[in-house]
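ugh ok fine here u go
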Amino acid sequence: MARTTPHQVQDPPLYRRIATQLLGELRDGTVPPGERLPGERRLAERYGVSRETVRQALEVLRREGMVATDRRGSHAALSGEPVRAPSGLAFPVGAATAVAADRATVAWETPPPEHAEALGLAPHRPTLVHRYESAGAGGRRTAVTSFSAVALAEVEELARYRDRADGTASAQLWRAYDWMRRAGLTLHHRDSITPLANSPAVRVTRRVHDQYARPLEITDLVLDDQQGALVYEFTLPADGSTAGPRSPRGPAAR
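structure:
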């Protein structure tokens, strides 16, 4: 009779390990309450397991009340944490609300050259790139955000997106600033807004760095609106801090 080693006794079944990983994403807000989960096939590809393993993992979470399933598929059933964002800012800059977007995806790819330079990335080095598109009564908005190596190293919730950043799956990072603050980072924003030549649109460039002047992310947003250019700065303290915002440098039309 074969002996069971201590290692074998301690290792949970594969479907239990997948359920634990999914539960972590549900609890930290990577998958917000009520948001539909990817299909079984996509989850199987993400974790490198069979669809049957994914099915068993989802059944574990259903029994524990963490996931609910209806005719539209499975979705997070947790009540979720309140989002602590004293400035009321949404991610990405220009989002109409903190949770609404026509399309939002992430990819692991080489960022635009100006983003790489701003983030201190070597040429052709890939990073997490977020794309946002929205069209409505307020006009069309498109935003591209690139994250730095510092942001990915210190913000666990962002780092988790690397393995599923295929550029096609929905990725609502509306809690990105909250995640950064929970990681102990004070967020300094600098937004530049300029009209585009021969166009009714304006470009907004946001640069975010932390209390150590390390770059965290840069966003370029283009929206259909006509405004004078302005530059302003403000600070979001790390979670738990009582420091107030910086005095703005604007608006100052150019």
